[in-house]
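Practice problem: predict the structure.
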Amino acid sequence: MAASEERIAVLGQDVPNRQTISPSYLKGTRDDQDTNNHDFQLDARGKSRMTILVDNQPNKDLTVSIYGAHAIDASIGDAGTEQIGSSRTVTLDDKRIIRLDVAFPFYIIRCAYASAPDDATALYYTVYVNLTTGAVGKEDEDVIETPFTGTGNVVVGTQKLAPGAAFRLVEVELTLSAAPTTGTQNLVLKKDDGSGTAAYDNVLLSIDLVANAVTSLVVKPDKPLKASDVITAAWTNTDGRTFGLIFKYKLE
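Answer:
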């Protein structure tokens, strides 16, 4: 796949000139409706925190990958250029914020579509970067959401979270259209160790949604997990309630 270097520049006149102090506001835009890799290169020297907002206006999902580098003219694939975490998906006509500790002097933000947009009106995406000094707290880490919705049963093999990398399970949220009323309906959240040995699996939560008249439930495990771990949910939706189930996690 082709790759091209893109320009990322200081924002307009409303931004102070002394950006070497703090903060630095940068912006890059692309309007190519293709599937090539577009690499935005930036200088993070002297900064400790980076916030990236990607505004994806076209009608296709955009993949964003972040790489650290040791030279301003580095390319992806060069020795010493390393991908940071997993690639992120910015869904069609949406925005996503990514926050990072600065550990490299230079960065490359790679953006690419798996299939070319064909939106006649929304033709471009924009990458905004804010580089600042100061420590990054846990609240600044990037929270990723995996949502499910439906009116059938919640099934272990379908409603699950499997990032495939070390992660922290921050929160699980369940919303129902109405409280279930028939019999006993247990919602079970479980950690599958991924080793194939059931002895290492753990039940994180088991609650009867009927007995507790649940219409909204939030669980905050804040649990560190390894790459092979899978979080599963199971519930027999006897009353056919419309449910919304969201797993929220952070990559470690």
